[in-house]
Design a protein that fits this description.
single chain, 308 residues, D-amino Acid Aminotransferase, Chain A, domain 2, 2 domains, 9 helices
């Protein structure tokens, strides 16, 4: 989706004008992909704009950096305040998408990243529904990708690493070129892993199931965890269990979750309809509860909101 420029981007402790937020062509991460990032959303609420699960996202960002042995020069609270400042100073009162990025800077080249400087940036801009309003309302068509998800012993799938998403981009392009909306990736062992940038859930016999990192090398999703909590509060059983592709074909309902995508029904997988191909009642109930939570309409989830 196109980016709508805002006024400032936070870079290494300073608010920099959007068009001046630049890096050198020999920035290490640009060449070797050693970087980590997050996707975060802020929403308008009755009490002002709030960033959803900000601290949890920044904790995961720092955990990803630790996995890659990147020594981040900012604390958790400093990163959270940087995100608040970007939303506040850009007057993004109606909500936005935030992109924190930790990358290796200019001055060293070669495969040893340890001498490189570690730089941090946080950008924010208005951004609509990642998979489209029609997808949120009516569901998306999915394809099992020929590209496998990383083996956790080849790439650390618990980290949200920049270069690792070449894998996801290949799967996304394959799906779009074939006429689908999104791809589902299998783990090296053949189990269902995740979508190109989202986790997924299936419903069968009243029970929700989602793959776990230990089974399929998925990234532990913050929206996935949010939906797990909401679903259990609504009275549904949620399991983290291995899934194979035919589990998707035979599911009563299915949906994907992610910060950018939010909660999106799956209408079909490999041209097999999920249920009758329309969003099911459980998916619709969870989706409605999720959107109410992020917009500050549910008191019990107030702790997830970080007021700007």
């Amino acid at each position: 989706m196109p980016i709508t420029p805002t006024k400032y981007i936070w870079m290494d402790g300073e608010l920099v004008e959007w068009d001046k937020a630049q890096i050198h062509i020999l920035t290490h991460t640009l060449h070797y992909g050693m970087g980590v990032f997050e996707g975060i959303r802020a929403y308008p609420t009755p009490n002002g704009v709030a960033i959803f699960r900000l601290e949890d996202h920044m904790k995961r960002l720092l955990a990803s950096a630790r996995i890659f042995m990147m020594d981040v020069p900012y604390s958790l609270e400093e990163l959270c305040e940087a995100a608040r400042a970007v939303v506040r100073e850009n007057n993004l009162d109606q909500g936005c998408y935030l992109r924190p990025l930790i990358y290796l800077g200019y001055g060293e080249m070669g495969l040893n990243p340890l001498p490189c400087t570690v730089n941090v940036a946080v950008a924010a801009w208005p951004w609509g529904t990642y998979l489209g309003d029609d997808g949120v309302a009516n569901g998306v068509r999915m394809k099992i990708s020929s590209w496998r998800r990383h083996d956790p012993n080849a790439m650390p799938t618990a980290a949200k690493g920049t270069g690792m998403y070449i894998n996801s981009s290949l799967a996304k392009v394959e799906a779009i070129k074939a006429g689908y909306d999104e791809a589902i990736m299998l783990a090296p062992n053949g189990n269902v892993s995740e979508c190109t940038g989202e986790n997924l859930f299936i419903l069968e016999n009243g029970t929700l199931t989602t793959p776990h990192i230990a089974h399929a090398g998925t990234l532990g999703g913050i929206t996935q965890q949010t939906v797990e909590t909401i679903a259990r509060d609504l009275g549904y059983e949620v399991n983290y269990e291995p899934l194979i592709r035919t589990d998707l074909y035979l599911a009563d309902e299915a949906f994907l979750t992610g910060t950018a995508a939010e909660v999106v029904p799956i209408s079909s997988v490999d041209d097999r309809l999920i249920g009758d191909g329309r969003p099911g009642p459980v998916t619709t109930e969870i989706q409605k509860a999720y959107f109410a939570a992020v917009r500050g309409e549910v008191t019990r989830y107030e702790s997830w909101l970080d007021r700007v």
